[in-house]
C-alpha cells in the first residue's frame, strides 16, 4: 500500500475512529486501526466488537492495500507531524513507513486479514433525523444513564419510534429523563436499547448545524450513518423498565421558577453540600418564595428565590448534583416543579412545550434537619 493524504484531515479522522478502539482488550489486533484503500479514498476502522466506528477521507492512492496500525502510537505520530502531506507505505511483511517533510517513522503493523470487521446493517431501511434534533435529545438524557455494571440495561437508553413519535429515555434508579419529538416515519415502529457509550460518540460527531443523518437497526445492532462516518454498536439485551408507570399523573403543588436563578442558587448551595453526605440541599417552599439551604460540619448556606406557587407548602430535599445536571441542559427560561409529598418524585418540565420530562427522587429528611 502507498498513499498520500493531508495531515490535519488524517489526524481528525484517526481521532474519530480511536473512540471505537479499546485499550482493555486481550486481542492485540483490536488495539489497532484498520486502514484500507477504497476508490481514491482511505477507509479507517476502530472496533472493539461492541462498538465500531468507520470513516473515510480523500487521498492520493498510488498503490492499493490494507494494514492494521497500533491506534495509540499511530494517533500520536500523526498528530505530532507538520501540517503538510503525509505519505504512508507498507510492504508484504506489514512494515509501515510514515513520512512527512523531514520526518520519517518505521513501525511494525499487523496482518489486516485478522481484523474483525464491524457487523453489516441494511442501510436501505433507515430513519432519517435532523442532526441538531438528535444531538439535543442525547444531551438532555444521556447524563441520566446508570453507571452500575450490575444493571447493564440501564447503562443504555431506550429509543422508541411509534408512528411519527420518537422518545429517548434514560434512568438510573434515582432519576428519569425523557426527550420526545416528531419525525417522518417511513420504516415502522422500533424499540431498542442503545449503549450510552455509543450515544456519547454519536453526540460528538453530530453537527449542531442543519443537516440529517440516518439510523438503521437489526435485531442485535444499530447503525448511525453521519455523512462519511458510520457508527455500528451492539444493542443491549433485556427489558427496559416500564418508565410510564413511574411518572406521577397528579400533583399537590406546582412551582414556576426561573431556570437560571434556580440553577445558580443550587450551585452555590452545593458548595457546602459537597462537604456533607448525599450532596444534600433542602427546599422550603412557601407562598411566593423558595428557600434553598445546605448544612455541613463546616457551615451552612441560605438562598432565596421568587416563585409562583400553586398548592400547598412543602419541605423537600434532593441530591444537588442530580438537580444541577438537569437544569444545565434545559432550554426553557422557566420551568415547573410538580410535587406531591416530600418522599414522592419531583417532576421538572419546561413551562413551554411538552417534549421533555425529568423525574427526580427526593432524599428523605428528618423532621429536625
Describe the structure.
Helix 1 packs antiparallel against helix 2. The longest helix has 15 residues. This protein is α+β, with helices and mostly antiparallel strands and 369 residues long. 18% of the residues lie in helices and 43% in strands.
**Named CATH architecture of the largest domain:** Roll
Distance between termini? 71 Å
Helix content: 10-25%
> In the CATH scheme, what's the topology name of the largest domain?
DNA Polymerase III, Chain A, domain 2
Mean pLDDT equals: 94
User: Strand fraction band?
Assistant: 35-45%
Question: How many domains make up the 3D coordinates?
Answer: 3
Describe the global form.
elongated
Poorly predicted parts: none
Main sheet: strands, sense, barrel: 9 strands, antiparallel
CATH superfamily of the largest domain: DNA Polymerase III, subunit A, domain 2
Q: Summed up, what is this model?
A:
With 369 residues, the protein is an alpha+beta fold.
List keywords for this structure.
nine-stranded antiparallel sheet, elongated, DNA replication, transferase, DNA Polymerase III, Chain A, domain 2, 369 residues, cytoplasm, 43% strand, eight-stranded antiparallel sheet, 18% helix, alpha+beta, nucleotidyltransferase, DNA_clamp_sf, 6 helices
Secondary-structure map with pairings?
Elements: E1 2-6, H1 7-18, E2 32-38, E3 41-47, E4 51-58, E5 60-63, E6 66-70, H2 71-80, E7 85-90, E8 95-100, E9 103-108, E10 127-130, H3 131-139, E11 156-162, E12 165-171, E13 175-182, E14 190-195, H4 196-205, E15 212-217, E16 221-226, E17 229-234, E18 253-258, H5 259-273, E19 280-286, E20 289-296, E21 299-306, E22 308-311, E23 314-319, H6 320-329, E24 334-339, E25 346-350, E26 356-360
Antiparallel strand pairs: 1-5, 1-7, 2-3, 2-6, 3-4, 4-17, 7-8, 8-9, 10-15, 11-12, 11-14, 12-13, 13-26, 15-16, 16-17, 18-22, 18-24, 19-20, 19-23, 20-21, 24-25, 25-26
Helix pairs in contact: 1-2, 3-4, 5-6
